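Subject: sequence -> structure tokens, single chain

Hey, anyone have a minute? Need the predicted structure for the following. Not urgent.
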Amino acid sequence: MAGALLLATQAAAVAAEEESRYQDSYPEAASKKGLQVEMVEDALALDVKHAALNVDLCKLVDPEADEGDTDEGGTEQARWTYKGHDFFFKGAYAARLDRDIKALSSEGVIVNMIFLVGRSKNEAINRHMLHPGLDKSGPNRSATFNSVTTEGRQWLVATMEFLAERWSRPDRKYGRVAGYIIGNEVNNHWSWSNRGRATMREFADDYLRAVRLAHGAVRRQSSWARVYVSLDHHWNVRDQGWDERQSFAGRAFLDYFAERARQGNGGDFDWHLAFHPYPENLFEPRFWNDKSALPQDDTPKITFKNLEVLTRYFQRKELFYNGKPRRIILSEQGFHTPDGPDAEEIQAAAYCLAYKKVEALDGIDAFILHRHVDHPREGGLRLGLRRYLPGTPEPRPKKKVYHCFRFADTPDWEAAFQFALPIVGIESWEQR
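Reply:
Had a minute. Here:
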């Protein structure tokens, strides 16, 4: 019975491409400048064209609610009906997401949501939303989606339909979302999409099922929104901190995912890629010195130094969908502020060079910088446009990179970027 439901759901997902509730075209942006937004007003002041926001589905779903129930703050729970069953969601959490999405999209920002599931204190939520193979000894609370049980698949589909309908309405009452990123750096699953120890094929099969279900749910509501697979910068090597059942090389994972998608029930579908080309050493922003970022397909890593390897790889016909290359966004990457008197100049110069490289690359639609503000619990990394200095008169002071970011896609970019040329070792931006 469970297998029959899965096949029917997958087939419906593909058929629904012709049956979207809301019809529109994918929005065009004036530039590729984007940010993982923490302070909406500040992001709008920076004139971002793309934004990424996180949503933890385990904080949204409410499997124990009933008609008319409210959350702790008195907000009525939201409801969605799927296959004759009612599914309830925490109204206050949905409203917080709506607030930021609407504020950004109302100003023309293309909004991408990063869909995550993190371990909850509520075991009913965990049972529905988290893969049953989750190993709690993993380093983070991040898990992968439960696409292997009937109730898990139903909750995933109902949740994605509920959100996609909400964020695709013509009246834009709740704002508009154009991108749905399913999970985070899934080739490094032990850290960011844990489902317990697994072979690459075992993990990829489960993840593909989740992406296909999510895609079908989104497409039934929106004719234009894109669904993305998320990978980190390990291309032909895995993260050496983990073994072969905890982390995988991105290229092999992507090729297997694409092959299985073509062969699966319902056939291929229009998934896209959300890639993270961090420098080879996250604490070293000078990516132009990366030794493991080579210009050929068998490069160990893909960073900003050799990003053209990725766009070239996506020109392979076997990766096309309906005769066209899939799209790429850079949904999370940034540059550490090192120690020393010239720290801010080095970080800012790295952004300048990376922006000019991405700006010139066809096939990449957005460069979404991480982070907006330094985070005190990010392993010592200081990636923000702003510092984090709590208890001081100015707790989030701007760094030099803030001003470079602000002017990156304006007529004043060249003056703002001029300082970076000697730092990155070139005489003009044509040498990038």
